[in-house]
Amino acid sequence: SSAKEWDASMSKIRTKLDPVLHAKVMLNFEMLMADHYYDQGKTDLREKAFKNLMNWLPKAQLDDKTLYAMAKYLAYQDQSSRAIETLLPIVKTDRPSKDHLFYFLQLARYDEEMVPRNLYMDIMQKTADMYPKEFCELFSKKKMGIQPLEDYEVKTLYCSSCPN
Hints:
Blueprint: H1 2-13, H2 19-40, H3 43-56, H4 64-76, H5 80-91, H6 98-108, H7 117-130, H8 132-137, H9 152-161
């Protein structure tokens, strides 16, 4: 009941807060609620908390570094599709950071429904072009391993980009 009271209180003071600040507060609230519902085994309410979190995300106007942290949090919470959704607008920009690209590629390779093959390969090519040395290191035990190289198109890109 205290969570419901807190939510009701936030609704009452919403008009007194800057909308971006309010969205950030609500993001934190939804993360706490997702953890709380996980501990209680209430998967339906946990799912609702994650849906709410994703609705607040664009309103919070987070910087890229914080969005990266949010994506890592979501993936840790077994919400990989939501982590991909969080990173997708960033990796589609002209100059995304290598952290965003690498983490996205590691997650997206398991979700062809959310990230179609052509988009995945475009982002893989962008990563190879922007960060050639680091791209080669992506296929290491610490990152993605060599399993993605079973894909002929990925292997071709790797062989054409990496000296080893």
